[in-house]
Amino acid sequence: MTIKNIRRRPALLFFILAVLLFSCKDKTGKADQAVNDKIVPLRIAAYNVEFGDKGTPQEIGKMLSSYGFQIVCMSEVPGGDWAATVGKEMGLEHVALGTYSTAGHEDKYKAILSQTPLYEIEEVLMADTLHTAVKAKTKINNREISLYSVHFPFGWRDQAHIDETDNKVKTFVDHLDRLRGKETAVIAEDFNFIPSTAEKGSKYHEMFKEIGFRLAGESVGMPYDSLVTMVGKKKRIGRVIDHVFYDPEQMDAVRAEIIELEKPLSDHKPVWAEFELK
User: Fold this and answer.
1) Pairing state between β 119-126 and 40-48
2) How far is residue 226's CA from residue 211's CA, in Å, rounded to a whole number?
3) What pTM, to 2 d.p., does this model score?
4) pLDDT at residue 152, rounded to an integer
5) pLDDT single digits (tens) 144-186
6) Is there a contact between 109 and 77 (Cβ–Cβ < 8 Å)?
7) How confident is the model at residue 232 (pLDDT cuts 50, 70, 90)?
8) Contact residues for 186 (Cβ-Cβ < 8 A; gap 6+)
9) What does the pLDDT average to over 215-225?
10) How far apart are alpha carbons 133 and 122 in whole angstroms?
């Protein structure tokens, strides 16, 4: 072997090694990108169950089970194992049940049912214990989601009552604003306000919009002015007060619907939304 050939061989080996390393890096990079770009669906329902007055937990769980929800946020839930029974019918074995009944009424708790484990469960006060939001965290494909089940007050009696409602909604919105960017939040259930329209604004809806949250139905073009979520209120078309809010910087809303039941199981209709987490 000549000296010339000996000198060429290391150069050739180095070239082959460089090509192999570049090839492996390119394939790994594409694999990582495929994982990062994977779209993770999240389907959430919201339902005010009217303290179980019109439907048993078994009936409600069976009705909801056909939609494949991973999360259900409920309000006006009876205490005890009522919510857990709904979850059992749906295969949602993880339950967060609040400790404060809405407006001090009997058996009007907030609850969250989940397919995946819930943790860091707490109850966020809206100035006092009469109106709260049950909060829990879960993970969907290792993505942490903060879930809030709410039941807002409805100010109508007099100015003092309206001012009290204003303060409570603002207190909760301020809580969300402080955590925005630190959590991926979804807020669902009975908000007791209709969305803003081109003709008339809703001050509570605008509070959410000002901090960057959006209605799932708004994002997919839901015709709010021709719908209603209250059972027996057909003359009040446009009264949609049950909602699912989300942060559009964290996920995309791809579907939102109101479930119309032949036999109502509450004085509210269930609503739901589907999101894509990226």
Assistant:
1) unpaired
2) 27
3) 0.86
4) 97
5) 999 999 999 987 778 999 999 999 999 999 999 999 999 999 9
6) yes
7) confident
8) 42, 44, 71, 145, 146, 147, 148, 244, 245, 246, 275
9) 96
10) 8
Query: SS3 for the chain, per residue?
Result: CCHHHHHHHHHHHHHHHHHHHHHHHHHHHHHHHHHHCCCEEEEEEEEECHHHCCCCHHHHHHHHHCCCCCEEEEEEECCCCHHHHHHHHHCCCEEEECCCCHHHCCCCEEEEEECCCCEEEEEEEECEEEEEEEEEEEEECCEEEEEEEEECCCCCCCHHHHHHHHHHHHHHHHHHHHHECCECEEEEEECCCCCCCCCCCCHHHHHHHHCCCEEHHHHCCCCHHHCCCECCCHHHCCCCCEEEEECCCCEEEEEEEECCCCCCCCCECCEEEEEEEC
Work out the pLDDT band at 18, boundaries 50, 70, 90.
very low
pLDDT band at 237 (very low <50, low <70, confident <90, very high): confident
Mean of all residue pLDDT scores within the chain: 88
| Whole-number Å distance between alpha carbons of 189 and 175 | 17
Integer-rounded Cα radius of gyration of the chain:
25
238 versus 83: the higher-pLDDT residue is 83
Other residues' Cβ atoms within 10 Å of the Cβ of residue 156? 9
For residue 28, the one-letter residue type is: T
Average pLDDT of the segment spanning 33-50: 79
Burial class, 4, CB count within 10 angstroms (exposed 0-12 / middle 13-18 / buried 19+): exposed
Q: Which residue shows structure tokens 């007060």?
A: 241
In a 10 Å sphere around its CB, with 0-12 CB exposed, 13-18 middle and 19+ buried, how is residue 27 labelled? exposed
